[in-house]
Amino acid sequence: MKNFGFKISASRQLDMDTIQSDLYEKLIQLEPTAKRCLMCGACAATCTAAEINGFNFRYCHLLMKRGILDNLAKELSKCMLCGKCYMVCPREINTRSIILKMKALMTETTPKHYSL
Ligand code: SF4
Ligand code: SF4
Hints:
The chain is mainly α.
């Protein structure tokens, strides 16, 4: 096969009609500020834990929004709950509260995914 210097990546398309969104809807009810997230990444860029263990709030938020729960509990356990992300968020989203609520939802409703 001719080498064009690039290759086609596997599709990462999501079918939004079939994703598991019930947990995210519960999260929105518990912490409505989550809806305001622009996914700008300011929280991830300033995160205390990111330097140490690669934690990324935006990534965790997207995982729950898309219903991809397999590694979410493990990722959430990396947050140090310092609250710095809340101070830098341009939309005043209560990120620390969202992280705590995501952890609680994972424990209560999907214990099989809560294996650290
Ligand atoms: S800084 Fe705020 S708006 Fe930006 S990705 Fe983080 S939570 Fe969302
Ligand atoms: S509360 Fe968690 S996500 Fe926010 S800056 Fe601290 S370690 Fe990072």
